[in-house]
Amino acid sequence: MIKNIKIDFVILYTMMISFIKNNKFNILLVAIWLFITIFAMFSHEIWRDEAQCWCLARDLNFVELFSAARVEGHPMLWYLLLFPLAKIGFPVISMQVLSLFLVFLAVVFFVFKSPFDNIFKFLFVLSAGMAYY
Question: CA–CA distance from 126 to each of 30, 40, 58, 74 (Å)?
């Protein structure tokens, strides 16, 4: 049993090293993007439309949230994602962390799965829309 676990770790380690060697540019690009966006997240003040979303998710119950979100500019899914965070009592920065996590998933998917060359990936990922989410 212990011998099988040791072999599994060796196989996992070998696969991880192979993945890193084959994707150096992609890993570096995601790391640069993550550094820039984390810096931007901590230096970004909450705008009125962001605060409105947070206040609606925090102050309204589930039924009232559906009613109020009809006239708001954000999709209902965003309010549904914010709802548990706001109701549990997390601070408003958790909204920014959630947004960062969702955009991080999109960037990783784009960088590792898109058929584009590295120049286009670099230009797209570090553009204003993706860097400032």
Answer: 10, 13, 33, 24
Q: How far apart are CA 45 and CA 33, in angstroms?
A: 20
> What is the pTM (predicted TM-score) of this model?
0.84
Query: CA–CA separation, 40 vs 126, rounded Å?
Result: 13
Exposed e or buried b for every residue in 80-112, given b needs 16+ CB within 10 A?
ebbbebbeeebebeebbeebbeebbeebbebbe
Q: In angstroms, how far is CA 81 from the centroid of its own chain?
A: 13
Determine which helix (DSSP H) or strand (DSSP E) holds 5, and give its type and residue range: helix 2-22
Return the number of other C-beta atoms located less than 10 Å from residue 60's C-beta. Answer: 18
How does pLDDT run across 16-29, given as a tens digit for each residue?
Answer: 888 888 899 999 99
Query: Count of CB atoms within 10 A of residue 33's CB?
Result: 21
